Amino acid sequence: MQRHYGLDWLRIGAFAILILYHVGMVFVPWDFHAKLPGAWWVAVPMMASNPWRLSLLFVVSGYASRALLTRNKVPWRFARQRSLRLLVPLIFGIVVIVPVQPWVELSEKYGYAAGFGHFWMHDYFRFAVVGPLFLPAWNHLWFVAYLWVYTLALALGAAVLPGVATRALQAGFAWMMRGPALLMVPIAWLVLVNFALFPGGRETHALADDWVAHFSYFPAFLFGFALACAPHTLAALVARWKASAAIAVAAYLLVAGIEIRWPGSTMPHPWGIVFSLARAVEGWTAVAALIGYADGHWNRDHRWRPMLTEAVFPFYLIHQSLIVLIAFWLRPLALPGWANFALLVVATVAGCWGFYLGGRAIGPLRPLIGLRRHASRRTHVDPRPALM
């Protein structure tokens, strides 16, 4: 399998949007670890990516997993490689990177008076509830934990299923995922999850009880895995990207209109149902449009791609802690909203680059921030698929 540069660019773009999205979380009425004065309307542009950004990342990760599993030849070797690549930075993140987030949240919202050093030494590793928070926590790193669990499930399936069964499943996917079913089946599944299987359910990111997330993201991960060996499905996505994009934009406009008319959760019946249905439609058609466009227009290399691809994981590890800490420092200054936003974006991006470049240059730190232990020519010309 050759590297798909278009999906690399999608992954880079999705994480760039994620940084802006989490900056936006500081200003919207939704719950977040740190807050600055904002306005309800900030949620409207955030909803342009909210329904699809995580599903897209799981699809891309599933696609890359197919190449990695093929290259490692045996499932246990694939599972070992992915466990080392994901668990080491996850544990490092929980121990070192994440703690500032609950400290800021407890200090701002619940009157926690001790400094960060005391909090980290005495309260963070209690394995108990401190205020309303169970500590230690993985916060935004839940994505890494879920990706690891899905990877193990994939390796287990590859180990126990006979070859004839896997070939039949792949053939069934290729047969089903073409034509209108390519959009209708995933949308129907999302509607089933949200309205029939778990009505009123919300994602918890706690792994054990997060069935809404698992029933949404694990199928997306498997879709990407199957897509890697389904050229006709990929061609169908390319052929229909304009139609998919048009549907996604129309669905978003409906979502935005309802949010503007009834901000927050104040929408009356039946508009709440319409809102959820439109989000499901936007959620999948945007993914389909982006993959189709990326394959048709972005599947080419560039001298910046290897570094940006490598930088994505370190950026992801550190970005939310930077946002929360910087917002905490900005709050006493009482700056205008536009100044807070600009400073947050600039300082967060600068901090992410510093974290990546500094960690990349120090050999023992590389595995801790999600990089391969030794730098190689692949930093400049990397033929392997990108995967967290």
From TrEMBL:
Domain named Acyltransferase: residues: 5-356
Species per Swiss-Prot/TrEMBL record: Sphingomonas endophytica
UniProt entry keywords in alphabetical sequence: Membrane, Transmembrane, Transmembrane helix
Protein name, as recorded: Membrane protein
Transmembrane segments: 12-32, 38-63, 84-104, 141-161, 181-198, 218-238, 245-264, 270-293, 313-331, 337-357
Pfam families according to UniProt: Acyl_transf_3
Domain of life the protein comes from: Bacteria
Gene Ontology molecular function, alphabetical: acyltransferase activity, transferring groups other than amino-acyl groups
Taxonomic classification: Bacteria, Pseudomonadati, Pseudomonadota, Alphaproteobacteria, Sphingomonadales
